[in-house]
Predict the 3D structure of the following.
Amino acid sequence: MNNVFLVLLISIFSTTNIFAEEHKQNGTNQENVLAISQNQIKVATVDFQRILRESQIGRQYLKSAKTNIDKKQKLLSKLDSQFRAMREEYDEQKLVLEEKSRDEKEEELAYKLTELKRKREDFEAEMKIADARFQRDILRVTMKEVQIVAEQLGYDIVLSASAPGLMFMSSKLDITDKVLERMRR
């Protein structure tokens, strides 16, 4: 997948250089495009998954998440054990119970099972929300740091190594103003 993305990126740059040369021959003054053709574009990658594992904010989150998961799993395990004990007790007594008592126990078991399922679903939803918040927060911090490092080292484009995606692009590569200018004519 990364190889396909790299080939696509190279072909985009080649097309951009052809575009720049074409406009240079036509005598148009497109500073951004000419800058691309005159300077070599520097591309870097960042392994976002490694940042999650090795950064202080990532390690703190993973530690906190593990503690929270362990606590919730203990609670779910306790509720599951209570439900199983109630069910075993009911299974042992159901043949000797009166119909009314049997119906009440079955309703109580159904309620406990529903409660257990709901708590599991709530826990999963809570973990997804916490994970999404963390991903958003660490991505915000990472993007800021990537921009600083890219600018210091002179990179024009920084891609995510673990999942194709643009993490930083130098503003000198942005030709949006020129495109809009032409479209307004």
In short: Residues 99-153 form the longest helix (55 residues). Residues 1-35 have pLDDT under 50 and may be disordered. Helices lie at 2-25, 31-38, 48-54, 56-93, 99-153, 176-183. The chain has one domain: 42-183.
